[in-house]
Amino acid sequence: MPIRLIVGLGNPGPEYEQTRHNAGFWLVDNLANSLPGTRLQRDSRYNAMLAKTSINGQDVWLLEPLTFMNRSGQSVGALARFFKIAADEVLVVHDELDLMPGIARLKKGGSAGGHNGLKDITAALGTQDYWRLRLGIGHPRSLNLQQQVADFVLHRPRREDQELIEQAIDKSLLVMPQIVDGKFEAATMKLHTA
């Protein structure tokens, strides 16, 4: 099954732009910028930044919900229903506390692991069986920080962590054509061994 919808998760507004929770937005922004003629534009029907593009000859929607993180499912569900996009044709890109900065992992399904954006998307799609691209941001404990998780995800990463997150985004962009083509095994091997 090819991917027809790539969703980047984050919170709208300049005060959140550089925060760890917006790693999904960062990847989708970079992806849009790398594709000729692709520009994310505000679309009030889906309350999102949206672009239709082509990757490897495959039509793909890029979506960044403009709701706050815990309401991401509103945009995703509305677009998926309108264009009849099945859950297994959806890739959600999000920050992941359980992975260290610099690590990106691809997986299908599974629990939301406390991620409110994923919880809301699961509710909107009626299933957990969609693809996720998890961008490691680390956990405050694993990074020896005293911050609470909620505070941690809503703050800017340290410079060294930011560089690692950007490297993980770059690696992820390299396998995006394979992901879109539905070659998940090959994409996973490349991403997980790079």
From TrEMBL:
InterPro entries assigned to the protein according to its UniProt record, in alphabetical order: Pept_tRNA_hydro, Pept_tRNA_hydro_CS, Pept_tRNA_hydro_sf
Subunit field text: Monomer.
Binding site for tRNA: Y16, F68, N70, N116
Residues with site note (Stabilizes the basic form of H active site to accept a proton): D95
NCBIfam families hit by this protein: pth
Gene Ontology MF terms in the entry: peptidyl-tRNA hydrolase activity; tRNA binding
Protein's name in the database: Peptidyl-tRNA hydrolase
Annotated site location: Discriminates between blocked and unblocked aminoacyl-tRNA: N11
Record key words, sorted: Cytoplasm, Hydrolase, RNA-binding, tRNA-binding
Enzymatic reactions: an N-acyl-L-alpha-aminoacyl-tRNA + H2O = an N-acyl-L-amino acid + a tRNA + H(+)
Gene name for this UniProt entry: pth
Gene3D superfamilies in the record: Peptidyl-tRNA hydrolase
Organism expressing this protein natively: Janthinobacterium psychrotolerans
Pfam family, any one: Pept_tRNA_hydro
Top EC class for this record: hydrolase
Active site: H21 (proton acceptor)
